[in-house]
């Protein structure tokens, strides 16, 4: 590469990733194959439309790539093409959710999702997001115990009668009861959208329950636990009873919402990289990876609790956990900054019923997908819990210990 300024910055970022411990639960390390697909000449092509129905010439191979990607997506999640439509063109998770609302709701209709400060995502109806500007939004929360309160959720749904009920979160460490939420949504004639952006890889690996038996629509990002490039996949249940009742050709409406509703040409290099990641996720080694992600999270949570840290809901069922630092009288921002100085990368996060402001909340969020990709196991999780304790409670820098771990577990795949 000839652009010296960018070469230097990429080199520096590569070094940063190699020399720090990434505990951000939404991040991961992709394979060289995924990187190669992303950096390929596929980025040169315009291919507005869908395979076999493009607006530009020259899409012979692009069609094959997109079809292969769709086939692999269906196969990975055990979906029959007779029951599930699949769209791999959404640029990322947020545009995927936008496409679902655009396809299934009229402006001003009602979305019901989990509140952001309680673990939900911006696009599930948070007030600063389009999802609360173009639609009416009502938000459910978790109870004082940190678990979703399904009784309260049902009561809210019956009172407010939203057109769509959304599950999914960025900071919820427990299993979501998809069956229960589907029953609530369908009881009031609403669609059930399961946004599994965070858990997609765990679901593919079989270590987290699947929403496929219950949901009308499923969205997921491809770059979190699924370990692919940035991107998203939308699955649409062609046999949705709610869609049938509304006489909505649901898969067609979702495709139309993505293009031409919200986007122009798809990112074909990204589609190819998603196809590569889906192939990797179909290998037996990925099942092992998923299991280890969950085992590592359980182990890290247990150790942190042993050091006296308060975990929201008391622990984790998935790949992430939230530490509530109220007891330690440390703010989330202060913890994030001090850990970063030692090379431990986490993000500050609100905890349920947080008394502090969103920009400097009471918690930090930790996850194990990236560390597990480096080959770390329970033993290293114990060590990392100890390092976190040393930084936050003993107020000592652990840069050297972090460097040693990073040298032993390289961050290249
Ligand atoms: C990450 C995430 C998204 C959004 O993905 P982007 O690619 O950042 O737009 C949507 N929903 C949930 C639950 C997420 O975790």
Structure in a nutshell:
Helix content is 43%, strand content 14%. With 413 residues, it is of the alpha/beta class.
Q: Give the end-to-end Cα distance, rounded to a whole number of Å.
A: 21 Å
**Global geometry:** globular
CATH class of the largest domain: Alpha Beta
Helix content: 40-55%
Main sheet characteristics: 7 strands, mixed
Strand order of the largest sheet: 4-10-9-8-7-5-6
Low-confidence stretches: none
Strand content: 5-15%
CATH superfamily of the largest domain: Type I PLP-dependent aspartate aminotransferase-like (Major domain)
Hetero groups bound?
pyridoxal-5'-phosphate
CATH topology of the largest domain: Aspartate Aminotransferase, domain 2
Number of domains: 2
Average pLDDT, rounded to a whole number, is 97
Calculate Rg over CA atoms.
21 Å
> How many runs of DSSP E, i.e. beta strands?
15
The assigned CATH architecture of the largest domain is: 3-Layer(aba) Sandwich
Helix/sheet category: alpha/beta
Number of DSSP helical runs: 16
């Amino acid at each position: 590469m000839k652009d010296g300024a960018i070469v230097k910055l990429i080199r520096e970022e590569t070094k940063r990733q190699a020399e720090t411990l990434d505990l951000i639960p939404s991040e991961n390390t992709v394979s060289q194959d995924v990187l190669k697909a992303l950096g390929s000449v596929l980025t040169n092509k315009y291919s507005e439309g869908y395979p076999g129905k493009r607006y530009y010439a020259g899409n012979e191979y692009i069609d094959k790539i997109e079809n292969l990607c769709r086939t692999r997506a269906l196969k990975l999640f055990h979906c029959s093409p007779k029951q599930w439509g699949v769209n791999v063109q959404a640029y990322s998770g947020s545009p995927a959710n936008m496409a679902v609302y655009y396809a299934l709701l009229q402006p001003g209709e009602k979305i019901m999702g989990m509140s952001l400060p309680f673990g939900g995502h911006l696009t599930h109806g948070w007030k600063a997001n389009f999802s609360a500007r173009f639609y009416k939004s009502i938000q459910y929360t978790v109870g004082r115990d940190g678990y979703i309160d399904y009784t309260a959720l049902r009561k809210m749904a019956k009172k407010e009668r939203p057109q769509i009920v959304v599950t999914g979160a960025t900071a919820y460490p427990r299993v979501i009861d998809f069956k229960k939420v589907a029953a609530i949504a369908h009881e009031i004639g609403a669609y059930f959208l399961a946004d599994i952006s965070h858990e997609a890889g765990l679901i593919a690996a079989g270590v987290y329950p699947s929403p496929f038996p219950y949901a009308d629509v499923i969205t997921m990002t491809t770059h979190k636990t699924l370990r692919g490039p940035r991107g998203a996949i939308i699955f649409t249940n062609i046999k949705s009873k709610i869609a049938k009742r509304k006489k909505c050709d649901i898969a067609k409406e979702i495709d139309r919402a993505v293009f031409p509703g919200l986007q122009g040409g798809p990112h074909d290099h990204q589609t190819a990289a998603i196809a590569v990641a889906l192939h990797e996720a179909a290998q037996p080694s990925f099942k092992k990876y998923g299991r280890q992600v969950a085992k590592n999270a359980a182990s890290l949570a247990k150790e942190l609790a042993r050091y006296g840290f308060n975990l929201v809901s008391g622990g984790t069922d998935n790949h992430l956990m939230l530490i509530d630092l109220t007891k330690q009288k440390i703010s989330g921002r202060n913890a994030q900054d001090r850990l970063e100085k030692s090379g431990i990368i986490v993000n500050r996060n609100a905890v349920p019923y947080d008394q502090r402001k969103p920009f400097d909340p009471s918690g930090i969020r930790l996850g194990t997908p990236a560390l597990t990709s480096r080959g770390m196991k329970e033993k290293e999780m114990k060590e990392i819990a100890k390092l976190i304790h040393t930084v936050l409670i003993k107020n000592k820098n652990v840069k050297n210990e972090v460097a040693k771990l990073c040298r032993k577990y390289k961050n290249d795949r």
